[in-house]
Specification:
The protein is mainly alpha-helical. The protein is 71% helix and 0% strand.
Amino acid sequence: MEGGWERAREISRRMAHGAADAGRATMRAGKATASGTARAGKATATGARKVGKATRRLTYAGGAGRTGLGRLIELSAGNSACDAFVTVALASTVFFGVPVGEARGSVALYLVITMLPFALLAPFVGPILDRFRSGRRYVMAGTLFGRGLLCFAMAAAVGAGDLPTLFIGALGVLVLSKAYNVSRAAIMPSVLPADITLVSANARVALFTLVSAGVAVPVGAGLTAWLGSAVILRVAMVGFLLLGVVAVRLPRHVDSPDTEEEGAAPRWRTLLKVGPAVAEAVWANVAIRVFSGFLLFFLLFLVQDKAVPWLAASEPWAQDPFFDIPKTIALLAGAAGLGGLAGAVVANWTRNSAPGLIVLLTLAVTAATTITAAIIFGVWTALAISLVAAFAQELGKLALDAIVQREIGEEVRSSTFGVVEAVLQLAWVFGGLVGLVLSLAESSVAGLVTLAVALTAALGWLLVTRRKRVRAMKAELRRRRAEAAADEQTDEYAGKGQAADEPAGGADDAGQAGPGGGHTGHADHTGPPDHADRVDRAGRPDHADHADRAGRPDHADRRVPDTKPLTNPHG
């Protein structure tokens, strides 16, 4: 009996020791897990700080930190990330999800529903923003705060299945997003450093927005699959509200004073009032947008209908085992994304190139690529033309923004951007509808040949118009130079006559006279004008004609107060 008790006590002691060992092992595992988590958190925080510092060095490079361009780049990157979250969260709705698997009628309805309301509202956004250009920081903050509130309403509508609220909220997000882009483009000249061109500054903003959107899309997709669309919309809401605070803290010089008179009628911008340089860039971008919209839906339905060479083989053994329909669509989307990124990078490199020339070159590249694809159409040419379409759309739009920022005055710049955005959206929709119609023929050659002819005709028309404008400008310059030379010659003859009318023994301005060899007005023996009236070889007035530092006229100018200052006819 005692032996049994001893064995029982031994077993209980062993069990206690085992439980203690298990507890200690659990504690060690917990400590190790906590230590590993802490180290991982520290490493993540350290990496985030390093990435943040590197990003700050890139955004603030070239004097961008002093002028406020760096803050604007960071604000635009955050705006792009939040927009990506909203897009991913509403990917299944009619506004943000392209119905790639639906029939052509559904896709056409998608184009009309999503783009037509914005195209009707966009022209009114610019004039409204122009009326409040003295508070552009607050206008930008208002677009961000408004989207935050709309995200809150859409998050509640997603859970309840309230489709009208979701529809109105999505439309409001689209319009406010475009309003932010218009405001951001309008204030770009106010934050432009001296060492950076407008094209490079726009490209830097576009590059960081594309990168932030590319990072936010997979993160948002993973969080949407894990937590649901409502949670992602609330995350976007918090992001928009914080970015609104950042927008208010932009430098004050981004706000321009209102210079128009009180009660003056608002000025409206159309394509007939923007000037020849801006109109040329707009029409070139319209052709590129038609090309982009056409190509997207044309290739999409050709691939779905297996009307492309690598999918149209009659025998299964002749079909390419790798390029099936989902992989082809994914590759085309990847090529388009890479093309947009390449367009922003190339625009950042073109520091000293004329934006008008860049626009025409992008249109020429698209036309040449389309002609090549029509002749030799295959999977690689399809990928190439998708890449070129996105590349040309991004680069051409950045150059167009630079031209508008340079050519259009401050008081109507937002109106011009609003009109331009509306026209480009309508061009994209028109191109998409034409692509839908031509995809019914299930012939890649017919569609690409039509597109190539249209692009070539647009390029030829723009080149002819540009040549006429350049000739007219040269003729006007020659006329002005001739008038300036005639005025200069008239002034010279007047000076000779004045010197001839002076008496031979008279005194000059300095009070010096000489009947036989003294100064007589510093006039030489051939009768040139007095030193107070002659000009040098470069067309600049002589030292006796120029004004002093304080802006007071020289003594020679006081002698003839009504004389018009000479100008350089070659200037």
